[in-house]
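Example record

The entry below shows one chain as it appears in the dataset: sequence first, then structure tokens.
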Amino acid sequence: MEKEIYTQVDVDLALARVAAGEKKAAVARTSADRRL
């Protein structure tokens, strides 16, 4: 089986997804803190 080759675009998209997930988690944490 061919080894997968990741292009720069694939890497950028993956990093963007991770960053978006972290931002969403941070926002959720912040609003939870505000509710207390």
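Notes for this example: The helical segments are 8-35. The mean pLDDT is 89.
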